[in-house]
């Protein structure tokens, strides 16, 4: 077989070897880099008259590079972010979410902190992965949650702090503190320990939670403002406030006894509030009745004495006439309200039956109010 039929040397042309056809390529072949560069050079030579190493070609390349450099200054700020523009490392302005522009690097750079997002930090508890439940569970952190109260008791406090960057404090947030989350957590734990250390355990466990949360929030904000941190504390939430686990059963018994004591005290106070006013009302009623009887007796005595004095004056003027008038008035008063039968025991009364129920001879008159029943015969 002549060599010229194989072509490209003694083994033929292409990928063939002396034993026949060589290995066939599998899949798409990668582009040839040299071929791409050669094509790009040809196109540049066609675009740029006189070659790309001429003055016009270099100018066009520089213009393209400058345009790309200027376009690199466009950046987008997301909805939860704020853009902090730095000019040679110095903060010059803050931009809101949206498409913005800054002078390209290295003149100006931009930082994009999550300034509009509310972050959460938990103290006294942490979330851990729980494969058994296929989720996350809460685990207590005693070194953070156990605190000493003002009355020398120990209380277990778990709480959460909600914070965000101040609207005009992004620069302070970026350049004044190195570890924002660690700073907020340390300040929160310190403020809570200070407030708990000034309070007794009983109000903390019952009705002073809101006051404690407000006090801790104000103290944290004052401390962070002193640091110039540019952080705003939005809320402090106390999740759990209990005695330590070793004494919680005994403490609950004490709380139940105190609740019973308070209930009994309230019942006793209710009974006292009912009985005491009634007794006071009865006492006032008796005093008023006695005062009325006193005034009545005094008035009657004064009236009788005045009447007696007037009668005595008239008696001194005409004793006989006055004596007779008094006698008649007395007889009239005594006999005026009684039934009277007059029996003349003269000679004409010999035919009278020895037994005569005189009270039945006339109908009884009804007794008048204020008079005593009585009767007589003469």
From TrEMBL:
Record GO terms (molecular function): peptidase activity
Transmembrane segments: 52-71
Subunit record text: HflC and HflK may interact to form a multimeric complex.
Protein name as annotated: Protein HflK
Bias (Gly residues) ranges: 1-20
A biological process term (GO) from this entry: proteolysis
Classification of source organism: Bacteria, Pseudomonadati, Pseudomonadota, Alphaproteobacteria, Hyphomicrobiales
Coiled coil: 247-274
One Pfam short name: HflK_N
Cell location: Membrane
Keyword Metal-binding: no
Organism: Bradyrhizobium guangzhouense
